[in-house]
Amino acid sequence: MLRDIAYMMVLSVKEWGKNASDFQKKKPIYRKTKFKISILLLMLLWIVSASNIIYGLKDEGYRGRIVSAFSNDTYDKVSASLSYYGKYADTILADDAKIIILEHIAKAIKINRYEITNTVDEEDNSVTTLSQLSEAGDVIMKFITHDKDQQYIYVGININRQMDAIFTYEDIVKQELDKLGMNNTTVAINLKGELNGELEEYKKDSITKTLLDKTGAKVVTGHKSDELYTIYAYDKDIKESVELGEGKVNVNISMEYNSDKNKTIVYYSVPYRNM
User: What domains, with CATH codes, occur in the chain?
Assistant: First the structure.
Protein backbone atom coordinates (compact mmCIF):
# COMPACT_ATOMS: atom_id res chain seq x y z
CA MET A 1 0.00 0.00 0.00
CA LEU A 2 2.77 2.44 0.90
CA ARG A 3 4.49 1.72 -2.37
CA ASP A 4 1.26 2.39 -4.30
CA ILE A 5 0.91 5.76 -2.59
CA ALA A 6 4.53 6.60 -3.33
CA TYR A 7 4.02 5.66 -6.98
CA MET A 8 0.99 7.94 -7.28
CA MET A 9 2.94 10.80 -5.71
CA VAL A 10 5.75 10.33 -8.23
CA LEU A 11 3.24 10.58 -11.06
CA SER A 12 1.83 13.76 -9.54
CA VAL A 13 5.28 15.33 -9.27
CA LYS A 14 6.02 14.44 -12.90
CA GLU A 15 2.77 16.06 -13.97
CA TRP A 16 3.69 19.28 -12.19
CA GLY A 17 7.11 19.15 -13.83
CA LYS A 18 5.51 19.14 -17.27
CA ASN A 19 3.74 22.38 -16.46
CA ALA A 20 6.77 24.14 -14.96
CA SER A 21 6.92 26.65 -17.82
CA ASP A 22 3.38 27.80 -17.04
CA PHE A 23 4.30 28.31 -13.42
CA GLN A 24 7.25 30.50 -14.36
CA LYS A 25 4.88 32.96 -16.01
CA LYS A 26 3.19 33.49 -12.68
CA LYS A 27 5.94 33.71 -10.07
CA PRO A 28 3.74 33.81 -6.94
CA ILE A 29 1.89 30.73 -8.09
CA TYR A 30 5.18 29.13 -9.14
CA ARG A 31 6.74 29.73 -5.72
CA LYS A 32 3.71 28.26 -4.01
CA THR A 33 3.73 25.25 -6.31
CA LYS A 34 7.48 24.81 -5.89
CA PHE A 35 6.95 24.76 -2.12
CA LYS A 36 4.24 22.12 -2.51
CA ILE A 37 6.52 19.99 -4.67
CA SER A 38 9.27 20.22 -2.04
CA ILE A 39 6.88 19.11 0.66
CA LEU A 40 5.63 16.25 -1.50
CA LEU A 41 9.17 15.14 -2.26
CA LEU A 42 9.98 15.07 1.45
CA MET A 43 6.83 13.05 2.08
CA LEU A 44 7.80 10.73 -0.74
CA LEU A 45 11.23 10.13 0.77
CA TRP A 46 9.66 9.41 4.15
CA ILE A 47 7.17 6.95 2.64
CA VAL A 48 9.88 5.16 0.67
CA SER A 49 12.02 4.86 3.81
CA ALA A 50 9.09 3.58 5.85
CA SER A 51 8.22 1.15 3.08
CA ASN A 52 11.75 -0.19 3.01
CA ILE A 53 11.70 -0.70 6.77
CA ILE A 54 8.34 -2.45 6.76
CA TYR A 55 9.02 -4.64 3.74
CA GLY A 56 12.56 -5.27 4.95
CA LEU A 57 11.25 -6.67 8.22
CA LYS A 58 8.72 -8.76 6.36
CA ASP A 59 11.33 -10.19 4.01
CA GLU A 60 13.92 -10.69 6.75
CA GLY A 61 13.14 -14.40 7.02
CA TYR A 62 13.16 -16.60 10.10
CA ARG A 63 16.96 -16.48 10.35
CA GLY A 64 17.01 -12.69 10.55
CA ARG A 65 14.18 -12.69 13.09
CA ILE A 66 16.02 -15.17 15.31
CA VAL A 67 19.25 -13.18 15.23
CA SER A 68 17.35 -9.93 15.88
CA ALA A 69 15.68 -11.49 18.92
CA PHE A 70 19.12 -12.07 20.45
CA SER A 71 20.81 -8.94 19.14
CA ASN A 72 19.73 -6.54 21.85
CA ASP A 73 20.82 -5.38 25.29
CA THR A 74 18.84 -8.04 27.14
CA TYR A 75 21.66 -10.59 27.32
CA ASP A 76 25.08 -10.18 28.91
CA LYS A 77 26.73 -12.57 26.50
CA VAL A 78 25.53 -14.23 23.31
CA SER A 79 26.89 -17.02 21.12
CA ALA A 80 25.70 -19.41 18.42
CA SER A 81 26.51 -23.01 17.59
CA LEU A 82 25.88 -25.45 14.77
CA SER A 83 26.11 -29.24 14.72
CA TYR A 84 25.78 -31.62 11.79
CA TYR A 85 25.87 -35.39 12.13
CA GLY A 86 25.21 -38.13 9.64
CA LYS A 87 26.33 -41.39 8.10
CA TYR A 88 28.88 -41.11 5.31
CA ALA A 89 29.05 -44.68 4.03
CA ASP A 90 29.42 -48.37 4.79
CA THR A 91 32.97 -48.85 3.64
CA ILE A 92 36.51 -49.21 4.91
CA LEU A 93 38.52 -46.00 4.70
CA ALA A 94 42.18 -45.30 5.34
CA ASP A 95 43.00 -42.54 7.81
CA ASP A 96 44.48 -40.43 5.00
CA ALA A 97 41.18 -40.56 3.12
CA LYS A 98 39.29 -39.39 6.21
CA ILE A 99 41.70 -36.49 6.66
CA ILE A 100 41.30 -35.43 3.03
CA ILE A 101 37.51 -35.27 3.43
CA LEU A 102 37.71 -33.28 6.68
CA GLU A 103 40.27 -30.89 5.18
CA HIS A 104 38.00 -30.33 2.19
CA ILE A 105 35.20 -29.20 4.52
CA ALA A 106 37.69 -27.06 6.47
CA LYS A 107 38.73 -25.33 3.26
CA ALA A 108 35.08 -24.60 2.40
CA ILE A 109 34.51 -22.83 5.74
CA LYS A 110 37.90 -21.10 5.39
CA ILE A 111 39.89 -22.37 8.35
CA ASN A 112 43.55 -23.35 7.97
CA ARG A 113 45.14 -23.37 11.45
CA TYR A 114 43.63 -26.63 12.58
CA GLU A 115 45.08 -29.66 14.31
CA ILE A 116 44.38 -33.29 13.42
CA THR A 117 44.40 -36.16 15.89
CA ASN A 118 43.55 -39.87 15.77
CA THR A 119 42.07 -41.50 18.86
CA VAL A 120 39.84 -44.35 20.03
CA ASP A 121 36.79 -43.39 22.10
CA GLU A 122 35.17 -45.19 25.03
CA GLU A 123 32.95 -47.19 22.65
CA ASP A 124 36.01 -48.44 20.78
CA ASN A 125 35.26 -46.25 17.75
CA SER A 126 38.17 -44.93 15.72
CA VAL A 127 37.94 -41.12 15.66
CA THR A 128 39.83 -38.72 13.40
CA THR A 129 39.38 -35.17 14.71
CA LEU A 130 40.11 -31.86 12.98
CA SER A 131 39.88 -28.90 15.36
CA GLN A 132 40.61 -25.18 15.44
CA LEU A 133 40.03 -23.16 18.61
CA SER A 134 40.10 -19.36 18.92
CA GLU A 135 38.58 -16.45 20.85
CA ALA A 136 36.16 -15.81 17.98
CA GLY A 137 34.90 -19.39 17.97
CA ASP A 138 35.68 -23.09 17.65
CA VAL A 139 35.43 -25.69 14.91
CA ILE A 140 35.51 -29.39 15.69
CA MET A 141 35.00 -31.99 12.97
CA LYS A 142 35.13 -35.74 13.48
CA PHE A 143 35.29 -38.78 11.23
CA ILE A 144 33.95 -41.63 13.36
CA THR A 145 34.42 -45.26 12.34
CA HIS A 146 32.20 -47.86 13.99
CA ASP A 147 32.83 -51.60 13.49
CA LYS A 148 35.60 -50.80 10.97
CA ASP A 149 33.26 -50.07 8.05
CA GLN A 150 30.50 -47.76 9.30
CA GLN A 151 31.63 -44.18 8.68
CA TYR A 152 30.03 -41.11 10.27
CA ILE A 153 30.86 -37.41 10.07
CA TYR A 154 30.27 -34.80 12.74
CA VAL A 155 30.74 -31.04 12.23
CA GLY A 156 30.45 -28.64 15.16
CA ILE A 157 30.92 -24.86 14.93
CA ASN A 158 30.67 -22.37 17.77
CA ILE A 159 30.70 -18.59 17.20
CA ASN A 160 31.22 -15.98 19.91
CA ARG A 161 30.77 -13.01 17.56
CA GLN A 162 28.54 -12.20 14.57
CA MET A 163 25.82 -14.73 15.37
CA ASP A 164 24.22 -14.37 11.94
CA ALA A 165 27.32 -16.03 10.45
CA ILE A 166 26.17 -19.36 11.91
CA PHE A 167 23.51 -19.61 9.19
CA THR A 168 26.12 -18.96 6.50
CA TYR A 169 28.14 -21.85 7.90
CA GLU A 170 24.99 -23.97 7.97
CA ASP A 171 24.53 -23.48 4.22
CA ILE A 172 28.21 -24.12 3.44
CA VAL A 173 28.44 -27.30 5.52
CA LYS A 174 25.16 -28.62 4.11
CA GLN A 175 26.41 -28.03 0.58
CA GLU A 176 29.66 -29.87 1.28
CA LEU A 177 27.92 -32.82 2.95
CA ASP A 178 25.44 -33.02 0.07
CA LYS A 179 28.40 -33.33 -2.30
CA LEU A 180 29.53 -36.33 -0.26
CA GLY A 181 26.10 -37.90 -0.72
CA MET A 182 25.07 -37.25 2.89
CA ASN A 183 21.51 -36.08 2.28
CA ASN A 184 20.04 -37.47 5.51
CA THR A 185 21.96 -35.58 8.19
CA THR A 186 20.82 -34.29 11.57
CA VAL A 187 21.38 -30.56 12.05
CA ALA A 188 20.83 -28.33 15.06
CA ILE A 189 21.28 -24.56 15.50
CA ASN A 190 21.59 -23.17 19.02
CA LEU A 191 21.61 -19.49 19.96
CA LYS A 192 22.58 -18.83 23.55
CA GLY A 193 22.26 -15.79 25.81
CA GLU A 194 23.21 -15.27 29.45
CA LEU A 195 21.27 -13.36 32.13
CA ASN A 196 22.30 -12.46 35.67
CA GLY A 197 20.89 -14.47 38.55
CA GLU A 198 18.36 -17.28 38.84
CA LEU A 199 15.10 -16.32 37.17
CA GLU A 200 11.65 -17.08 38.52
CA GLU A 201 9.16 -18.84 36.27
CA TYR A 202 7.12 -15.72 35.47
CA LYS A 203 10.30 -14.03 34.21
CA LYS A 204 11.14 -17.06 32.07
CA ASP A 205 7.60 -16.95 30.66
CA SER A 206 8.08 -13.27 29.79
CA ILE A 207 11.36 -13.96 27.98
CA THR A 208 9.79 -16.86 26.11
CA LYS A 209 6.84 -14.73 25.00
CA THR A 210 9.19 -11.98 23.78
CA LEU A 211 11.27 -14.45 21.76
CA LEU A 212 8.19 -16.08 20.24
CA ASP A 213 6.62 -12.71 19.40
CA LYS A 214 9.81 -11.57 17.67
CA THR A 215 10.36 -14.78 15.72
CA GLY A 216 6.74 -15.65 14.94
CA ALA A 217 6.85 -19.21 16.29
CA LYS A 218 3.78 -20.69 18.01
CA VAL A 219 3.85 -22.82 21.17
CA VAL A 220 3.08 -26.53 20.73
CA THR A 221 3.96 -27.99 24.12
CA GLY A 222 6.43 -27.64 26.98
CA HIS A 223 7.50 -28.49 30.48
CA LYS A 224 8.13 -26.07 33.34
CA SER A 225 9.82 -26.93 36.61
CA ASP A 226 12.74 -25.78 38.75
CA GLU A 227 14.96 -28.40 37.14
CA LEU A 228 13.72 -28.11 33.56
CA TYR A 229 12.17 -25.24 31.63
CA THR A 230 11.66 -26.08 27.96
CA ILE A 231 9.12 -24.92 25.38
CA TYR A 232 8.59 -26.52 21.98
CA ALA A 233 7.13 -24.40 19.19
CA TYR A 234 6.50 -24.40 15.45
CA ASP A 235 7.64 -21.77 12.95
CA LYS A 236 5.86 -22.13 9.61
CA ASP A 237 8.76 -20.45 7.78
CA ILE A 238 11.22 -23.19 8.78
CA LYS A 239 10.95 -26.09 6.36
CA GLU A 240 12.42 -28.78 8.60
CA SER A 241 10.50 -30.12 11.59
CA VAL A 242 10.27 -33.15 13.84
CA GLU A 243 7.25 -34.97 15.22
CA LEU A 244 6.64 -34.52 18.93
CA GLY A 245 3.54 -36.18 20.27
CA GLU A 246 0.71 -35.25 17.95
CA GLY A 247 2.28 -32.13 16.50
CA LYS A 248 5.27 -30.85 14.57
CA VAL A 249 7.96 -28.76 16.24
CA ASN A 250 11.05 -26.98 14.91
CA VAL A 251 11.83 -24.48 17.66
CA ASN A 252 12.93 -25.17 21.22
CA ILE A 253 13.35 -22.51 23.91
CA SER A 254 15.03 -23.80 27.05
CA MET A 255 16.58 -22.25 30.16
CA GLU A 256 18.89 -23.52 32.84
CA TYR A 257 20.63 -22.01 35.85
CA ASN A 258 24.41 -22.13 36.24
CA SER A 259 25.08 -21.77 39.95
CA ASP A 260 28.86 -21.39 39.47
CA LYS A 261 28.38 -18.31 37.30
CA ASN A 262 25.09 -17.23 38.92
CA LYS A 263 23.70 -16.98 35.39
CA THR A 264 20.52 -18.17 33.71
CA ILE A 265 21.32 -19.51 30.25
CA VAL A 266 18.67 -19.01 27.56
CA TYR A 267 18.74 -21.22 24.47
CA TYR A 268 16.83 -20.74 21.21
CA SER A 269 17.29 -23.90 19.17
CA VAL A 270 16.23 -25.09 15.71
CA PRO A 271 14.72 -27.68 15.61
CA TYR A 272 15.60 -28.56 19.22
CA ARG A 273 18.47 -28.15 21.63
CA ASN A 274 21.30 -30.57 21.00
CA MET A 275 22.38 -31.52 24.52
Answer: 2-59 (no CATH), 82-187 (3.60.90.10), 197-275 (3.30.360.40)
